[in-house]
Amino acid sequence: MGSDGSFERDQNYITTRITADGRDGYPVEADRYRLVVARACPWANRAIIVRRLLGLEPVLSMGICGPTHDERSWTFDLDPGGVDPVLGIERLQQAFFARYPDYPRGITVPAIVDVPTGQVVTNDYPQLTIDLSLEWTAFHRDGAPELYPEPLRDEIDEVAELVFHDVNNGVYKCGFATSQRSYERAYDALFARLDWLSDRLRDRRYLVGDTITEADVRLFTTLARFDAVYHGHFKCNRQKLTEFPVLWAYARDLFQTPGFGDTTDFVQIKEHYYLVHKEINPTGVVPAGPELGNWLTAHGRGDLGGRPFGDGTPPGPVAAGEEVAAGHGA
Questions:
Q1: Sequence-distant (≥ 6) Cβ neighbours of residue 195 within 8 angstroms
Q2: Distance separating alpha carbons of residues 318 and 307, to the nearest angstrom
Q3: Left (φ > 0), alpha (ψ -120 to 50) or beta: where does 257 sit?
Q4: Which residues contact 169 (CB under 8 A, 6 or more apart)?
Q5: Residue 17: which residues within 8 A CB-CB, separation 6 or more?
Q6: Closest CA to 170 of 207, 223, 215, 228
Q7: Intervals of the chain under pLDDT 70
Q8: Per DSSP, what are the bridge partners of residue 19?
Q9: What's the pLDDT at 3?
Q10: What are the residue ranges of helices labelled H in 110-168?
Q11: Which of 21, 28, 45, 60 has the fewest CB atoms inside 10 Å of its own CB, making it the most exposed?
């Protein structure tokens, strides 16, 4: 926390990269690595979406932590016996300590673990999804979209940076502020940026170019959690997402696109925030709402044109065993 009561996110991640040339000692290989995620986490949800859009399921396995955790890290409590079946560990922390026995920072998802050694490779979530797009191309499915096309990278980076500070991280700045002034500063920046995004998306289907890009993935995971969590839990309550006509239609358009809504687990999302953040919700009561069926209503965004997957195609069905549980989606 800042001295003025503002929330300051620790952004010192493990920056080792898995690359095609293996320059950091970790070359891209099929069946060597395991992506560890939690469906509840917006940063991890990005990696789940990108992995699915690119069709990397056959070569990059995925371990799914439960929605809650304690101060010692995310656990594999959804697996039989509470043990990840590939890594053989109960806590993600064990993979971090296997590489760095005195690792001093938070244990975060998404993370990629080197299966042969059991050691974490990286938890640098912004770079992780970019590398899935650029470094894992040898294993992309036929028809995989270009989520980070070279001609648009500067604009994608610019938009994503603004969205990160004011929206992705902005909701946390509101929720964890410990002074009125810091809260209101973050609140004003959040809704100013949401208004800016509404204006930007009024006449264009996607944030950058005419196809889905990394920028859309990064915005979507915050919008998907907005009414269920951030509006009430984090006091981001000028209006709900459903009260932003343009942003709500944009979010529904993405939600109804394969890879987005079919990776979103609203039950786990709510359990995570309302059970883990005891300082904000000491009772541990999880809200019953909001109604979710409206995520599947017509959005009309197709009238703006655009090609969701560019020259590519939609991904196929969700991989067996990776489906969002019945009753957890919209």
A1: none
A2: 21
A3: beta
A4: 9
A5: 23, 24, 26, 122, 124, 127, 131, 135
A6: 223
A7: 1, 3
A8: 27
A9: 65
A10: 125-134, 153-163
A11: 21
Residue of 26, 41, 125, 206 marked active site: 41
Q: Cα-flanking dihedrals φ and ψ of residue 132, to 5°?
A: -60, -35
- Report the binding-site residues for glutathione: 74
Assigned CATH class of 151-304: mainly alpha
DSSP string, 269-308: HHHHHHHH-TTT-TT-PPP-----GGGGS---GGGG---T
Q: Is 65 marked active-site?
A: no
Every domain of the chain and the residues it spans: 33-139, 151-304
The verdict on pTM exceeding 0.90 is yes
* Crossing angle for the helix pair 214-225 and 42-54, to the nearest 10 degrees: 130
Residue 308: count of CB within 10 angstroms of its CB: 22
Nearest 5°: the CA angle 82, 10, 212 is 80
Active site residue 41: yes
Assigned CATH class of 33-139: alpha beta
Q: Phi/psi of residue 82, each to 5°?
A: 70, 25
Whether omega before 80 lies within 30 degrees of 0, making that bond cis, reads no
Binding site: which residues?
74
Q: What is the pLDDT of residues 239-273, one digit of tens each?
A: 999 999 999 999 999 999 999 999 999 999 999 99
Q: Among candidates 261, 320, 308, which has minimal Cα distance to 143?
A: 308
Contact 273/236 with Cβ under 8 angstroms?
no
DSSP classification of residue 35 = E
Rg for the chain, CA atoms, rounded: 19
The Cα–Cα gap between 256 and 295 comes to 8
> Which residues in 140-178 are b (16+ Cβ under 10 Å) and which e?
bbeebbbbbbeebeeebbebbeebbebbbbbbbbbbbbe
What is the distance between the alpha carbons of residues 55 and 318, in angstroms, rounded to a whole number?
10
Question: From the candidates 26, 33, 125, 172, which is the catalytic residue?
Answer: 172
Pairing state between β 61-65 and 33-38: parallel
Residue 9's pLDDT is 78
Predicted confidence at residue 71, as pLDDT, reads: 85
